[in-house]
Amino acid sequence: RLSCIRNNIWLACCGVVSAGLAVLSVFGLMLFCGVPFVVTVANAPFLILGVGVDDMFIMIASWEQSSRKKGKSDVKSLLAETYAEAALSVTITTLTDVLAFYIGTWTAFPSVRSFCLYTGTAFVFCYIYTMTFFGAVIVLNHKREQGNRHWLTCMPVGVGNDQAEESCLYNACCIGNCSRQSSQLETKQPESEHPMIIFFKKYYGPFFTNKWIKLLVVLLYGAYLGGSIYGCTQIREGIDLRNLASDDSYVIPYYDDNEKYFSAYGPRVMVVVTESVDYWNETVRLVIENCTQNLE
């Protein structure tokens, strides 16, 4: 928003901080519990950030919807109605994500198991911080707006007779808007709905509540579900190592030739010596050489 009163930049930053706190908390807890940290776990913060920002938008949208309703000027009532609207959606999203990743801990691959354990637990912490930390930040931001304070400096913003003839940029940064009108009037007037909310309310929603459109959606979902079930029956365990290299890599011809000329010989056999060996001793080296020949 152009208004330096209604601008929610700090609120958005705190939403990202909330996701960051969840990542720090889960990393600390998992490492304290002795869960191994693998390379794939480094991708978890990006997943948590996506879900955390999504929850942040839901909370802010519910707060703005509640604040526009008449008779809801009390902060406790606004926050209660916000949680009543947003908590259900955030909870269901968190439960499905946590369930999906905790199911992944049943795999036989230790690296995947660690990744799923880190990420699934991080979603739990993200939910906790959204419901506690971010809710408190929303209230503090509301009090800042009610006090007619600047979004950056939190200093009281007003307009005087000597400021009325200043430039639009000065008025936007120091007064609250470009119209040279007192920003103190903004907090007393109901905020207009966002254009995206109007689009979904007046056009998108009525379009999908049409009975023929609903029937079409059900049919499309049935086709999607059938295709998904068929795809699950075609999944085979295994991985083609060629897919891990770039198209112009020298590794791809190697795997092609290996499969073409040596695939009939079975897997490679390796021998590991688990004891301390005096390799400097010639007799020991001869024993190892004889052992190798016997294995061959």
Automatic annotation (TrEMBL):
Its main location: membrane. It is found in: Membrane. It comes from Herpetotheres cachinnans. InterPro entries: Patched_domain-protein, PTHD_SSD, SSD. It is a multi-pass membrane protein. The chain crosses the membrane at residues 9-38, 44-63, 83-105, 117-140, 212-231. PANTHER family: PATCHED DOMAIN-CONTAINING PROTEIN 3, PATCHED-RELATED. Belongs to the patched family. GO terms for cellular component: membrane. Coiled coil: none annotated. The gene is Ptchd3. The keyword Plastid does not apply. Keywords: Glycoprotein, Membrane, Transmembrane, Transmembrane helix. Residues 1-140 form the SSD domain. This is PTHD3 protein.
